[in-house]
Amino acid sequence: MIPVAFVQIFVLVLPSVLNVESRNEEFSARLLDSVLQDYAFRAFVRPRTGIPYDGNVPSNFSGIKVSGLRLRSGSMRRRGVSKYKEFHIPIGVLEQPYVERLILVYHNLANWSDLYYPLPGYTYLTPVLGILTYDASNLSARNLPELDIRASKKPILVNFSNVVKPVPMGLSPKCVYFNLDGAVEFDNILNGNMCKTTKQGHFSVVVEFTTAEPEPEPEPGTDGHKKSGRKKWVIFGSVVGGFVALIFLVLLIACLKKYDKQKKIDRMEQEAERGVPLLMTRVGNTKAPIASETRTRPSLENEYLP
């Protein structure tokens, strides 16, 4: 039988585990990619090649922007796309596997960036922008796998000029790239607002947190001097307390030595008393040895006279 304690622990822990799993699923970036692919494809009511179509997301994704751009594969490879939202697609971009038509799906996660792409130790200066590629042969398809695109000549550029926040004083912004497999890569920013890549994925500009700066020197007459004075008193008290403790330790050692010496003397006296068995008698408040009877009785001189 299963112990009752184990069952109780299981009942208490299971809701927490399920809650964590449901929360991870709720803010899964890959799940969001699939959802946004569906809404981007729905925007192609009367599709025309080379024209971006903005999709409409439901209210529970308010703030997120999605768009789709349908292209011929050969046209993208030979001409590129000079401007698609914040992205510049150069010539020479190839997809794998090959398809006749493809759709570039654009993401702008806005205020949802931190939830779907948490990055501990860093602050976002821009929303997370993404571009993913899908096969355009079936515009009603859902849960499509992404095509793999690579820039073979010049890199793909992401221009954040319209969305980047001011850089805090003394900090250096960096480009961050989120791969589809969850890997995170950092790179130097170009011209203060531009990132480059050779692959599809999600991109942003971030700054790294810095350690707290040292507190400035307090001005005369402020609380800083009071704190300094208290600190000196604490140091003085520690020194005095240590000195008193040292004196107490020395006295304690002296007392222990004296006690040990007295104990040795008592032990020696006991050994001496056991070595010479004398008869003792009490005289007043003390004990004193007494002599036993003499071995020969005294005799008078006249006892031997005739």
UniProtKB/TrEMBL annotation:
Entry coiled-coil feature ranges: none
A Pfam family hit: DUF1191
Highest taxon in the source lineage: Eukaryota
InterPro entries (UniProt xref): DUF1191
Signal peptide: 1-19
GO CC terms in record: membrane
Stretches that traverse the bilayer: 233-256
Name of the protein: Uncharacterized protein
Source species: Capsicum baccatum
